[in-house]
Amino acid sequence: MEKQEIIAKFKQSENDTGSVQVQVALLTERINHLTEHLKTNKKDNHSRRGLLMMVGKRKGFLQYLKERDIEAYRKLIKELNIREIK
Fold this sequence. Notes:
By secondary structure, this protein is mainly α. The chain has a single domain, classed as Orthogonal Bundle (Helix Hairpins). It contains four helices and no strands. It has helices spanning 2-10, 20-40, 45-68, 70-80.
């Protein structure tokens, strides 16, 4: 249910499920969920590795968006409340 809501909020066109904005929003939701999981399960290193891989993938998407469309990038990081990439 949450996934459909996120896609509906960030989609660029009617059938859009794979644009950079949608992918970043979905990854951000998964990252936030996994971060909460790791606060209670500190020794879960398999999930920690998955989290780091997701953060790296999101960073790549954000870098791509920043190079292509800086305004969309700024709008997205503001909406998702995430830091700018360097």
